[in-house]
Amino acid sequence: MMNKKVNNMLTIVVLLLVSLTVKAQDCKAYMPIEAGTTMQLTHYDKKGKITGVSSQELVAVDKKGSNTTFVVNQKFEDAKEKQVVETELSYRCEDGVFYIDMDGYLDSEQMKAYQDMDIKVTVDEMDIPASFKVGQQLKDGAINMEVTGAPMPFKMTVNVVNRKVEAEEDLSTPAGTFSCIKISQDIITKSVVKVTVSSVEWYAEGVGLIRSETFRKGKLMGYSELTALQKPE
Fold first, then answer.
1. What's the pTM?
2. What's the mean pLDDT when you consider all of the chain?
3. What phi and psi, each to the nearest 5 degrees, are found at residue 110?
4. Which listed site, 27, 82, 130, 213, has its alpha carbon 20 to 30 Å from 68?
5. CA of 82: how far to CAs of 51, 69, 106, 111, 225, in Å?
6. Which class is domain 27-230?
């Protein structure tokens, strides 16, 4: 009788450990998972005129236990196809949560002006949980930048707040049709002046950002969408 009770207890412990392991690994990556995948995001103004293109390549996927880190090389070019800035973005899945690199919320053209200066950046990461429901509020994010080595010290803070899951829907772009999570948010930028805009973003599991729209005082300022996606053969 005692052995039966012990065996039952061991079975429960094993099942619990398996359940926790599966939960930790159950992370939906809102980006490609194969190194060598390339993507192209085209940026437009409110009238649909191209203002720039961001070319991205997933250069590394590092798996350690239940955690995975994704490294993306991004090159931004303006409308005249002249390279403006190159950056490295890092995303990760950790304990069932997908974390977004906040560097993507810094203006690429503005960052070029500070590339030869000393820059200190601190972040409060945003995430997209593996399990969510429409109407759910998501964690806020922030990025703080301090520039030294310039004639005048410069500080800037970008806060992404009021994040909310608006819908789960299909969205079509020149790169294809994708099943997306739609997220709304407010973006508050503080430097010399304070600027507040709102945005809507669509993310697809296994791909990443499919489309984003930016508004100020309810009026469209511009948008970006995925125009090319190429996976390695």
1. 0.81
2. 84
3. -65, -40
4. 213
5. 12, 30, 19, 16, 20
6. mainly beta
